[in-house]
Amino acid sequence: MLRRDACLVFLASVLPLAAQAAGPAVVPPAARPDWDALLALAARLRALDQDGLNPAHYAIPADARATADPQGYAAALYAAAWAAVSDLLQGRVRYLPGRPDLRRDIVALPAWQARLHGSPDPAQVVEQAALLPPGTDLLRSALREARARVEAGGWPKVPPSATPDTMTIEPGVVDPVRVPALRARVAAEDAALAAEVPADPAAYDETLLDAVKRWQSAYNLDADGRVGPATLAVMNRPAEARVAQLRVALDQRRAMPRPQPGRRIEVNVPDFRLKLLEGERALLDMAVIVGKPQRATPLLSVTMTTVQFNPPWGVPERNAREDLLPKFRRDPRAMIEKGFRVFQYIGGERVEVDPLSVNWAAVNPERVPYLFRQDAGDFSALGRIKFIMPNSDDIYLHDTPDRGLFARRDRAFSSGCIRLERPMDLLGAVLEGTPGWDRAKADAALESRQTSAVGLRRPLPVRLVYQTAVVEGGRLRLRPDIYGLDAAYVRALDQRVPPAAPPPPPAAVVAGAAAPTAVVAR
Known about the structure:
The protein contains 18 helices and 15 strands. It is α+β, with helices and mostly antiparallel strands. The strands form three sheets. It has an eight-stranded mixed β-barrel. It has a four-stranded antiparallel sheet with strand order 5-8-6-7. About 35% of the residues are buried.
């Protein structure tokens, strides 16, 4: 360790070198840190794991180097600090293919660089950069707890059943193996249950039932107290997976764009929620149904332009092959009653075919020669309203007749498009300001049973985003990584050099991008 008076001598000469190593910022003489401040900076950089970053990515010099090479030590320390501050400000992962929802605001890097090199306490500048995104304190606390759980050996495991017919742990059951394991798993996150001493540890009693319901609710599972495959999968998820999820959440929030003053729609896909926002105020907040994992809802930034009343459904090829063909095989008459019609091209012309005349069992699902359409009506998969936002993926928002699905916690059931819990509420909001339209006219358009459309006077920006950690009202909600996108993000986060963003397309290409010729149902 160098003596403090000796340190002051060499710092005067090495800090300008340190500044040059990280950029052109100048260190004001009055703000030169003392040796303790430099050691504190090094310690703060070695604690970057609390921010979800890997300290090994930043070439932090060993303190022992300060004695042998003070100038090199100071220069390397400031270079490491600036690399870390840059990632804390902009996000370490600034681009991922297929993730247009990862948007970053422009950060005034030169000002922060001057702040870092001009501060007598540079470690505090690193901390200020780390705490900029809202919710960081809560996420860092959760990350600290998750890491402590990993170090303690992970979560207690709930073993599988020995027989298929007892896979689910039902309330009231007595099981000397699985019930104590279940109690231990839930008590690890439920202080009230941990404080209870059960009369019979093998019995799934009322106290444990209440705790399991609380746990299921916290994890966005159906809170019925039945511990089946879905609940067991989340309970037995490795503790390391939560660490990764929180690291992703911390990095995603860095340099997030500030809310725009106008109205916009945001759909958080893994949270199954849609919000109509104006600035930071939520005008509407509703449940939605999104694409199942094998037909994932794409992440988009688009504009809602049109509302269609009583929409017909032009069935996409995949839906026809995988969903409709088995139903036509079972009962073609029932499909007719639900408004489905069948067409075939004969001699270059589209001809309607009587579904009862087709030998559906002989149709090859890999080469279905028919087109399917469902007329507007009470049974239409699109319900009574469709909100069109032109995009190459043919994704839109729509009503649905399957209202019971909104009571489910896991709502990944669609073929990609987004079904709305309260479409009429959204309709009233998006039609505001459209000349000649009010709720009464919209109701009349719906009651007419005729397909019609109206262009919005104020087209609305719509963003489909993917955030599995939601911070609202001072609370943290964790959601399942239904599409595996967090897993891809954490792999990029752990690369020594994260993927670089591609150059933007020429403005002429963007301006000339054509809307899809048809919008089909998902």
